[in-house]
Structure formats: C-alpha cells, structure tokens
Automatic annotation (TrEMBL):
Family matches, as Pfam families: NYN_YacP
PANTHER family per UniProt: YACP-LIKE NYN DOMAIN PROTEIN
Source organism of this protein record: Desulfatibacillum alkenivorans DSM 16219
The protein's name: YacP-like NYN domain protein
Composition skew (Basic and acidic residues), residue ranges: 134-147
Disordered as annotated region, ranges: 134-168
Compositionally biased tracts (Basic residues): 148-168
Amino acid sequence: MIIDGYNLAHALGLLDGFGGDELEQARDDLCGMLAMYKKAKAHKITVVFDAQYAPEYETRNDTIKGIRIKYSPHGRLADSVIKNMARKERERAIVVSSDRDVAETVQASGAAAVSSQEFQSRLVEAIYFAQEADVPRSKERRIDTRKKGPGFRSKKKRRKTKAKAQKL
C-alpha cells in the first residue's frame, strides 16, 4: 500500500490545527493509526509525505512501528514519488489518495487507487476490530456473508480494482 500522507491526514481531520508542531503531531497520529491497521490487516504500508520545501539535508526516510515513511526529495512533490512507486509495483500496489491526477496515473499503470475517504472508513473499521480483538468476549459476533441485492457483473477492470480494495 502506498499512501498519500497529508491527503489521508486531511481526510481524517488530523490537520485541522495546522502549524509546525501540529504537523509533526498529525504525522505521528497518522502513523499510529496505520500501525494499528497493519496489526489487523498485515499489509506492507508506505506513507509518502511532501518535503518539497524542506531543506535538502532534512529529507529522510524512516520506519515507525512497521510503517515505512518516505519524504519526497527537495523540489519534488509527493505525488510524483507516489506515481513512480506505483509504476514500479504495477498490479501489486494499492494507492490511497483523493488526488484525481494521482488516481488516474496509478490506474493507468495497473495499480489500484482508493480515495482517502473510502480508506478512512476501512481504517476506522479495522482499528475498531483490532481493539475489539484485544478485549476478551463472551459471545462471538456473527457476520452475515449472504449475497444481497440483484446479481450483476461489473466490468473486469472495475472488478479487479474492487478485489484489491476488498483486501484493505
């Protein structure tokens, strides 16, 4: 999974109090949430943040709680880094970004694109179930898997994208 960091943080409302210290706190909060998601889903996750205007010596790559953090090089946007990563990974990549240009480029390279809003709901759900799994329960919750609604088959490309998104 390749995630547009500030795009998802904005969708989650982590950038509401935008400022220097708050920006770092928002990145840490996002990485904490993604670490809990990774615990539930076991995906390889890379988060790409813009560092376009940061001094060259500050550009770095980190790993926090199993989440790979990548900052865009000086003078480049995170969008271009995400597009390049998606081109290399092709069908194996799932990109989370609400940026339409990024989504179209990623899909053209064969990767799946998921909007930040759609991923947000999956993220919250996975975190909830991960926390629920830590608490002992007396009753097992049953999930109904029966098909609902009329049967209809969507286009192959849409089915493949949906199948990748289902793995989230």
